């Protein structure tokens, strides 16, 4: 066959490229508005979100859930796998708001809970507004009553969280629990400096996670790292106010596993209680912390730049008063203070020092 005005080889190549592009980017889209969601911030859109998720999860193709600009009132939402879709992208450009009555969320442990999913990405410039201040005002300091986290992933793989803003969580803002291959980047988290138990990001029982280019202002740990966490990379995180980046508290459970291969690089701490902290209860345990690197952190107005506390007991209530069984080793410390000599302090510590440790070790 001859086509006038076309080079046949060129024509074939163009068609091939177009077909390849279509096969790469073809996705089935689900707009929450088509499932009855409302953007006025007053009408409950919970069922609409769940219907959009179920439709995407049950589709064999890659899928795309879209939340447009506006305000969507959504209550507790459990979003579960196993999904037929190999990839679900949720793009949020609007603001998802919690009910004004904090007791509505209080019926669940999490506001948005993803469980047993794989290949889920939550992206966009949207916001989760959990309306936490009304609950904080009723909570005693350090009380865990009202245990409602904003966004959690449990027993999930290949997760991406990018570009979103989280406001005023009732408790933790983001929880990663029992997951593998998690990438979190460009996230912003805001809560008052005196807000109770509002950790920015909590990680536990998880493998291979990155937290990059993230800004966290909160009333508790900016990032908290729980037991059985391995291969965690944290870089270019800005923290403050808050309690810093903490490993622990460990030794709550005698059977818990350790924490290993954690790198914290090029972070900025401003007006925080601590910078980098390892904390464990003073009781027997099979747990451990090893392979931790603190590199290139800049701290301004930080009360305790680096803390290793194996006698952790908040508020000094019901302290176990034993010897910590958590074994800590292979920790890199190189701290300077305004081009002056930094100081270290030890109490009831037994250990050994190898290679470069600055300030001079007090062991």
UniProtKB/TrEMBL annotation:
<dbReference type="GO" id="GO:0005975">
    <property type="term" value="P:carbohydrate metabolic process"/>
</dbReference>
<dbReference type="InterPro" id="IPR000743">
    <property type="entry name" value="Glyco_hydro_28"/>
</dbReference>
<comment type="similarity">
    <text>Belongs to the glycosyl hydrolase 28 family.</text>
</comment>
<dbReference type="Pfam" id="PF00295">
    <property type="entry name" value="Glyco_hydro_28"/>
</dbReference>
<dbReference type="InterPro" id="IPR011050">
    <property type="entry name" value="Pectin_lyase_fold/virulence"/>
</dbReference>
<dbReference type="InterPro" id="IPR006626">
    <property type="entry name" value="PbH1"/>
</dbReference>
<dbReference type="GO" id="GO:0071555">
    <property type="term" value="P:cell wall organization"/>
</dbReference>
<feature type="signal peptide">
    <location>
        <begin position="1"/>
        <end position="28"/>
    </location>
</feature>
<keyword id="KW-0732">Signal</keyword>
<keyword id="KW-0961">Cell wall biogenesis/degradation</keyword>
<dbReference type="GO" id="GO:0004650">
    <property type="term" value="F:polygalacturonase activity"/>
</dbReference>
<keyword id="KW-0378">Hydrolase</keyword>
<keyword id="KW-0326">Glycosidase</keyword>
<protein>
    <recommendedName>
        <fullName>Pectate lyase superfamily protein domain-containing protein</fullName>
    </recommendedName>
</protein>
<keyword id="KW-0964">Secreted</keyword>
<keyword id="KW-0134">Cell wall</keyword>
<dbReference type="InterPro" id="IPR012334">
    <property type="entry name" value="Pectin_lyas_fold"/>
</dbReference>
């Amino acid at each position: 066959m001859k086509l006038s005005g076309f080079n046949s080889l060129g024509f074939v190549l163009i068609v091939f490229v177009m077909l390849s592009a279509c096969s790469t980017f073809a996705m089935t889209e689900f707009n929450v508005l088509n499932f009855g969601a409302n953007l006025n911030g007053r009408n409950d859109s919970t069922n609409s979100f769940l219907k959009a998720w179920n439709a995407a999860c049950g589709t064999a193709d890659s899928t795309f859930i879209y939340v447009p600009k506006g305000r969507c009132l959504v209550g507790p939402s459990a979003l579960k796998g196993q999904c037929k879709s190999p990839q679900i992208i949720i793009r949020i450009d609007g603001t998802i708001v919690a009910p004004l009555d904090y007791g509505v969320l209080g019926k669940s442990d999490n506001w948005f809970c993803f469980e047993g999913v794989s290949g889920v990405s939550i992206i966009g410039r949207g916001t989760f507004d959990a309306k936490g201040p009304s609950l904080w005002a009723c909570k005693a300091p350090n009380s865990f009553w009202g245990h409602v986290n904003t966004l959690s992933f449990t027993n999930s793989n290949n997760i991406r969280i990018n570009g979103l803003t989280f406001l005023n969580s009732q408790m933790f803002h983001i929880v990663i629990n029992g997951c593998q291959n998690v990438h979190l980047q460009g996230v912003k988290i805001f809560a008052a400096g005196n807000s109770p138990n509002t950790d920015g990001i909590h990680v536990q029982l998880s493998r291979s996670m990155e937290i990059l280019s993230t800004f966290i202002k909160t009333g508790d740990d900016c990032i908290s790292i729980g037991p059985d966490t391995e291969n965690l990379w944290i870089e270019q995180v800005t923290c403050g106010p808050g309690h810093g980046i903490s490993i622990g508290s460990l030794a709550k459970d005698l059977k818990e596993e350790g924490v290993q291969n954690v790198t914290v690089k090029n972070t900025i701490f401003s007006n925080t209680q601590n910078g980098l902290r390892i904390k464990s209860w003073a009781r027997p345990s099979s747990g451990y912390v090893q392979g931790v690197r603190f590199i290139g952190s800049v701290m301004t107005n930080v009360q305790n730049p680096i803390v290793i506390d194996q006698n952790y007991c908040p508020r000094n209530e019901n302290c176990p008063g034993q010897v910590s069984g958590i074994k800590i080793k292979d920790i890199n410390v190189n701290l300077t203070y305004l081009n002056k000599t930094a100081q270290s302090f030890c109490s009831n510590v037994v250990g050994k020092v190898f290679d470069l440790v600055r300030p001079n070790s007090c062991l």
